[in-house]
Write a structure and sequence with these properties.
Blueprint: H1 8-13, E1 22-33, E2 36-47, E3 51-55, H2 62-70, E4 77-82, E5 85-86, E6 98-100, H3 112-122, H4 127-140, H5 156-168, E7 174-178, H6 186-203, E8 206-211, H7 214-220, E9 223-228, E10 231-236, H8 238-243, H9 248-253, E11 258-265, E12 269-272, E13 275-278, E14 289-294, E15 300-302, E16 309-317, E17 321-328, E18 334-340, H10 341-347, E19 354-358, E20 365-368
Parallel strand pairs: 3-8, 3-9, 6-7, 7-8
Antiparallel strand pairs: 1-2, 1-4, 4-5, 9-10, 11-12, 11-14, 12-13, 14-20, 15-19, 16-17, 16-19, 17-18
Helix pairs in contact: 3-4, 3-5, 4-5
Bound molecules: adenosine-5'-triphosphate and magnesium ion.
Adenosine-5'-triphosphate (ATP) binds next to helix 2.
């Protein structure tokens, strides 16, 4: 695990002289394809040694941003600074990165050895150096002994590990991964996730991974960049993104979220039907329509009926917990609540049952009405 990383949020509030150094600064990068804006004024700093994930729905611009960093796509405007050097107009071969794509882009007519050695040969390294380096890299990705195989004789997971070794061969300062695991089955994906993360931590190489899989981003990233429609919605640690979503889009895209129609009240309250619910501090005017967002696991149910109550309309068994669907009495709105399996017997959970509902104020956040559409 990285221990020296500080998120910029902490860094800003901490003493300024200890700001971590930026490996990459992306400043106002816009990319247009004809009249379509794929990236809109992207500004982002990536720290030395950091593992960053670009996360967002299909078509939001993740690959375009990664390709722009690599120089494979030329931005329409804006600049890129890598380790203090302006790389904005440099061709890919003059930039310092290794890249792994979603589909195994190995050379099919070259052996594993030659695939990994490719970049080293281009650099005119001598024979002995190349042999030692390829052996070291294949050991790193657990593929020692596969030197003479061809890509077609390898599984998908093995091919991606060769691609990773090839990307790391020339010791790039920056590792770019575009959905490297998405073509693999779930079991191999889980395993490779750990392997890539461990490898990255061990080498300390600054890494950007594109994914649309939130679980992948939450488990692997030091920081997640959530994108939507060519803009950055939020940058933060996995915990910040999950617990303090900056927009209704982020709140709805990551994990499961309830959105209840409310009207804002003064003093950090919101009116749900006729019931006044405390919530996190908000800036909405009194009587302004809003949505109250709360995660199912934050909702507390009880057999003693409270002011807010609902009828059980559905119970879904999900192993560690049961997801209960309730219809709120008074407003008829739907609410999901996750009940740990060990508590479901205490509640005597059954369809049609009326239960008391508590929405903890510190987990209830207001967003603009009708704003959680992607
Ligand atoms: N060469 C191109 N010409 C025209 N439009 C493009 C081109 N490349 C990408 N786009 C458009 O830019 C938008 C962003 O594409 P991009 O490939 O970056 O999305 P993504 O976030 O990587 O999506 P996915 O998760 O599906 O890979 C899409 O609407 C896409 O159609
Ligand atoms: Mg993509």
């Amino acid at each position: 695990m990285q221990t020296t990383l500080t998120s910029p949020l902490t860094a800003h509030s901490a003493a300024k002289p200890h700001l971590p150094s930026a490996h990459l600064s992306i400043d106002g990068v816009t990319k247009r394809f004809g009249s379509f804006t794929a990236l809109d004024s992207i500004a982002l700093q990536i720290q030395e040694g950091e593992f960053v994930c670009f996360l967002g729905p299909s078509g939001c611009g993740k690959t375009t941003l990664l390709r722009t960093i690599a120089g494979l796509t030329q931005q329409t405007s804006g600049s890129l600074i890598q380790r203090g050097k302006n790389i904005s107009t440099l061709p890919p071969q003059a930039r310092d990165f290794g890249i792994v794509f979603q589909s195994y882009a190995l050379f099919p007519n070259l052996t594993v050895f030659d695939n990994v050695a490719y970049g080293l040969r281009n650099r005119r390294s001598d024979r002995a150096t190349i042999h030692a380096r390829v052996a070291e890299l294949l050991a790193l990705v657990d593929l020692s002994g596969s030197e003479h195989k061809y890509p077609a004789a390898l599984s998908g997971g093995q091919q991606q590990r060769v691609a990773l070794a090839r990307a790391l061969a020339t010791e790039p300062g920056l590792l770019l991964l575009d959905e490297p695991l998405s073509a693999l089955d779930a079991r191999v994906r889980g395993h490779l996730r750990h392997q890539i993360k461990a490898l990255q931590a061990r080498l300390g190489v600054t890494t950007i991974m594109v994914t649309h899989d939130q679980e992948e981003a939450l488990t692997m990233a030091d920081r997640i960049v959530v994108m939507n429609h060519g803009v950055i919605e939020q940058v933060g640690t996995p915990a910040e993104i999950y617990h303090q979503p900056a927009s209704a889009f982020v709140a709805s895209f990551i994990g499961t979220m309830n959105f209840l129609e409310v009207t804002a009240q003064a003093n950090n309250h919101a009116l749900l039907g006729t019931i006044s619910c405390p919530c996190l501090p908000h800036a909405y005017a009194k009587d302004q329509a809003a949505q109250l967002a709360i995660r199912p696991e934050a909702v507390a149910l009880s057999v003693s009926i409270s002011e807010l109550s609902g009828d059980v309309m559905g119970i879904e068994f999900l192993g560690a917990f049961q997801r209960v669907s309730l219809r709120l009495n008074g407003t008829e709105q739907r609410l999901l609540a996750d009940v740990p399996s060990r508590d479901s017997a205490t509640l005597g959970l059954r369809l049609g049952q009326t239960l008391g509902i508590h929405l903890p104020a510190d987990a209830a956040r207001l967003y603009p009405a009708g704003s959680n559409q992607s």
